Amino acid sequence: MDIRQRITILVVSTFVAIASIGGYATYQSRGNANQVKLVTEGVVPSALASADLVSQLKDVQLATMNLVSAPDANLVSQIKTRLTGQKAKLQSSLELQQQQADSDTQRGLVQQAKESLHNYFSAVDDTANFKVAGQNELAAATLFAGVAQYQTELEQIIDTLRIEKTRSKDAAIASLNSRLASTVSALSVVTVLAIVVLSAIGFMLYRQIIRPIGRMQSMMSEIATSQDFTRRVPVERADEIGRSTEAFNAMLAKIQESSAQLKQKTTDIQAMLQNMPQGILTVVAGSRIHHEYSAYLETILETNDVPNRDVMALIFSDTHLGADVLSQVEAAIGSCIGEDAMNFDFNAHLLVGEVEKRMPDGRVKILDLNWSPITDDNDTVVRLMLCVRDVTELRKLALEANEQKHELEMIGEILAVSQEKFHEFIVSALTFIDENEIVLHRHIEPDADALAQLFRNMHTIKGNARTYGLQHLTNVVHEAEQTYEALRKPRPDIAWDQDSLLAELAGVRAAVERYSHINEVSLGRRGPGRRGVTERYLLVDKGEILETLHRLETVNTGNLHELVAARDAVRKTLRLLGTEPIAATLGAVLDAVPALAAELGKATPSIRIDDNGYVIRNQASGLLKNVFMHLVRNAVDHGLEAADVRTAAGKAANGLLRISLAVADGTLQVALWDDGRGLALLRIRAIAVERGLVSVDEPLSDDEIANLIFRPGFSTAERVTDISGRGVGMDAVQDFVRREGGKIAIRFTDDAVGANFRQFKTVISLPDSYAIQVDDNQLEHLRDASAHAEAQPLSQRGEVSTL
Fold it and tell me: What is the pLDDT of residues 715-727, one digit of tens each?
């Protein structure tokens, strides 16, 4: 018999015992309940109702006496109505008593009471009728004769009935008490028997189930405590306990097998930790390092003092991190261990990913740190795993690769500029740097004029670098420009430090010279190229030279007129040497306009050049490039409106820039103007007043207001950008022009005197020796030669001669 069958028999026996007790108790309870109901709902209420009949009869007697003594007919009528109700009530009570009668005696008494009640109310009615008829004496006589007689008779009957009811009530209560006492005794006996039966069942349950399970549990506990999974629990039974024991033994076998596998895996992990070329450790509570870690960690950190060390002392000592960052790392580690994994997600950004650690011998290692949480089943962080990699060599290689990439980008920027223009830029930039160096050596203390010149020169270098797309150099120059900008403020953010300013300028020089070095050494583009300075290389159309030579060879030397014509032809050709159209001179500046407009969020403007047959000597090209670099940028930024504003004003969306050349009064006049809204005279005056350049009530003409833009540091830009807003545009242009003996002026082209905005052109006046007027045929030859020279590499420029 197995445990299931034994338990079934015990459960059934227990259920039968409990059912027997319950059935007997239910049977007795039902009988007693009926008896109690009979007493409480029948006998006792009936006895109480019989006593109430006497009270009701007294009320009728009192009402009858009031009837006889009533002073008027109304009161008599009211009392009669009340007596009628009391009669009905008495009749109803007698009917109830008859229903609840439990003996013939009680039923006979009720019947007599009904008959006596009839006679009694007949006498009462007679008394009332005499009273209504006004026969008060007869009413009184009837009351004391007939009514009194029947009343006494009725009272006796009712009293006898009440006595019978009381006797029945006492007998019923005594019978109920006797029955309840018998029930209690019987239930006590049955309960004792049930306890004996259940005790016997419990003893059998203990012997058959609990004691064997207890022995099995004790042996299992011993095995679990000793961790000796080679032991087995003996199987002594074939029931469920025996089968459970067999299952436990099978589980021990699996645990033994799993333990062997775990041991092997632990051995493998230890082997990996000992041999992997990476530092791995775990951080436990208290920011301590667990004793298990990879052996290579000692190689990386160059110490074997690792176990139980504080992770902050082992990893982050002698690093470049500041105290604030170190405290954040330490707080983040403490807030993660022992807390929900969500805390790691919140604080992971505070755990540093890379440090520079100084080793005992002074070497610096770059360590890459990778943090991961180790959680339990409740998603609580119990440890932090830290993987440490020595990436010093990797970073060095990356830096070298980045330097190579940087150099390749610089090469790409240089190749986008022709050799001649790049050479001119380098020479111009170094010249400005030399000027700044001289200024810095001359001034130990800050000086406004010196700062203005420093800023103009540096801003011009940056503008030219941006024009030629030399982005890396632009970034370096921008930093120096920012320094000069800070020193120009009324309350400078930094102090004038001659040594640091010279060092910063040396950095700019190094950047320029690096571009020059790459151009000459890496690219082999030494010097200005085939279109060099006028002293060595001059461009002229090859066909025109051949035509001139042929004319000289075929001239009739005997004819004076032919000799003079040949001489004039040669002179005319030689005059063109070292000249180029203004479009070629400003080519790099104008080519940068689309990118400039895009950066400002404006449509690319159209550009129209009216050279009026004049070409420019190469001596003026550097000056005009520097000047127009500022003028064109100002025109696009300040002069031309945004496309939507222009469209709303009925203008073309893209705007127009115009450049013209003319010679008048012995001067070359190069003009630039645009079709924007014009010069903002009102804003210029307001800024001048704000800066204290003029007083509020000082009368100024439009020309005087316009000339304020040539003041150093003056700008109408609403915000400072890399393009404008630093107040170094027109003053730089004026400085460049004056150095060459020229002038610059603002000339209004409208008649709107006193208006907020006025149309104008900027006119650069230079000596007329910088320009030569040629005929259309020569000008076309020069344009073709310049365009062809710019478009073809040096090896393919076969149509252009250099002299």
Answer: 766 554 554 544 4
